[in-house]
């Protein structure tokens, strides 16, 4: 900047001699070197002036920038540490923030837990005595949870859309707040009963079929809290792979015990010469027990191979389960009675048949003696009625029972086979008694 006269002030990179504006410091230096070479002393002084000015300007800018950064850093540090402590922390010393975070988390969890518990209490009151009729249901819902007065509410608090004839006002059944139909969420009655009483049986309804008729209208906030509670319940009740394998193993063991008892009963029947079961039936039952033993062994091995730290309680428990399963298989499933041979079975049945024939012969002789005694006493009996075997209802019943026995054996229902065989024996005995009566 230079002064041309008293009234005019010139600004720019002006030559101090000719007052020419050179636009930049470089052009001004070149102009002065070429046009005013005789003024070298003045040139050096000009360079010194520009150098000092540049240093001053740069130094001021750096100091200002550093002060500004320090102030911002100090303010930021104070803001970040205001929640922790007002004391100055020693450099190099660490401090734990766990207590603060626990306090913040506990306060928030307590608030959500308190609100969720209130909603669960209301939900229990709603679903415990819910009437079937719509009018009575609405009255019951209002008695449990008072509804807010929506006379002055013009907009839906959730979507901010205005209420009209097509957009009606509705109320949340748990908090009583106002909302529109589009912002409503419905909680199935069966799901609600399962939340308040986890032991109750549940018959779930698909989400797209849950309406106001079979569900409770809720706002988004209440539905979120109830759904979170349900997720917590499901996660607690969820079974691990280890538990699932153990329960399957226990189920097979429970099936094996009556199967072994049935096998022993069938074997004893064969040794006694009875015709209730045959050798094929007993072999089929033995094969079933063998498959159960294989399944138990495989599942117990899976339980023992689940990862667990050696020496821990879980590792000892898994080894105990494996050992118990091995003892059960060895002691109960593999120590079955040896089956008799076909020749042994035929011999026992032949002896049994001979004994039965002797008994029948003795009964026939006793019947003949009784007939002779009655004839001597002058009594007579008309036994001229002859029964046609093909039309006898006892024979028809016996044939039907034989068909049932065949089907039950095919499906390995040997308990049912035993019952049907007993019925067949009773029918045979009755039929034999009729034949003896006709002969006498």
Automatic annotation (TrEMBL):
Q: Which Pfam families match?
A: FYVE (PF01363), Rbsn (PF11464)
The segment annotated Disordered runs over 356-390
Q: Could you confirm whether the keyword Zinc appears in this record?
A: yes
Which SMART domains does the entry link to?
FYVE
Provide the alphabetized UniProt keywords: Coiled coil, Metal-binding, Zinc, Zinc-finger
Per UniProt, residues of the C2H2-type domain are 13-41
Q: Where is the FYVE-type domain?
A: 150-227
GO terms, molecular function: zinc ion binding
What name does the UniProt record give this protein? FYVE-type domain-containing protein
Species of origin reads Leptidea sinapis
